[in-house]
Write a structure and sequence with these properties.
With 265 residues, the chain is of the alpha+beta class. The protein is built from five helices and five strands. A five-stranded antiparallel beta sheet has the order 1-2-5-3-4, with helices on one face.
Length: 265
């Protein structure tokens, strides 16, 4: 495989991976955004129901839409002005959330509207049982207060709703890792092939030179009048001997390389 082909494969692979990752991130964000909107919608319905229940128990007026406010993505407030018991409040909130299939921990607090002073607050976990309470808040002359509700585990709750997307993302990451390993293997084999070709070319040259020298010297020694000149005869014999040693050295080098490869040194 040529270098141009490998570069083309790597380029298309990078473009494909970037495109797939971008699409997956986009759909993950869309799915998370959709779940967040659904969470907000279900929370508002639950809080409207809780506020109506509180007002009906205190014989107050009907709750207005403006009484439910979303301050942050995981923090809501309910404007209220009638005495309330913590046990009843927690039970109403839990029932309203469970009616909307919102099995999520929440933390609530009751604040004075005049000075933002917290009158009471507690973290409520879904798995725990309500403790007996019968506390009526003393508003200290304040006419209004509001109930703040925080969902500290909202992010993990939303992520649990998109488990299938998280699974697909994990599978995609495995595919990308496998694809990257494949490209790395191709490059490694390409490099080994180049090294092998360079080695073969060099060794061919190293073997070809002494073989040619031996062949020429042998042709001279085969001439009839070579014995008439002993010095010339010894010279060519010496050349053949030296080139033979050279060939032997090359063969030993190849054998040592093969031995090192087998021992993985």
């Amino acid at each position: 495989m040529s270098r141009a082909s490998i570069r083309t494969i790597i380029l298309f692979a990078l473009i494909s991976i970037i495109g797939i990752v971008a699409i997956q991130v986009y759909w993950m964000q869309q799915a998370l955004s959709l779940q967040e909107k659904q969470f907000d919608h279900r929370i508002r319905i639950a809080l409207y129901g809780a506020a109506d229940e509180l007002i009906s128990q205190t014989k107050g007026s009907q709750v207005l839409l403006e009484t439910i406010n979303r301050v942050y993505s995981n923090y809501y407030t309910i404007d209220f002005s009638a005495p309330v018991k913590t046990k009843e409040l927690e039970q109403i909130l839990l029932t309203s959330f469970q009616n909307q299939n919102l099995n999520v921990d929440f933390e609530y607090g009751i604040f004075d509207c005049t000075d933002e002073r917290i009158l009471y607050g507690r973290l409520v976990k879904i798995e725990e049982k309500l403790k007996d309470r019968a506390v009526v808040f003393d508003l200290d002359g304040a006419e209004n207060y509001y109930i703040g509700i925080l969902f500290p585990t909202q992010r993990s709750f939303l992520l649990n709703q998109i488990n299938i997307w998280i699974f697909f993302t994990a599978v995609l990451l495995l595919v990308i890792l496998f694809f990257t390993y494949t490209i790395w293997t191709i490059l490694k084999h390409r490099r080994l092939s180049e090294v092998k070709n360079d080695f073969i070319n060099n060794m061919t040259h190293e073997f070809k030179t002494p073989i040619s020298t031996i062949a020429l010297s042998s042709e001279v020694l085969l001439k009839d009048n070579i014995m008439d000149n002993p010095e010339r005869f010894r010279h060519y014999v010496k050349i053949i001997n030296e080139e033979n040693k050279r060939l032997k050295g090359h063969v030993e080098s190849v054998l040592q390389i093969a031995l090192f490869d087998n021992k993985k040194i």
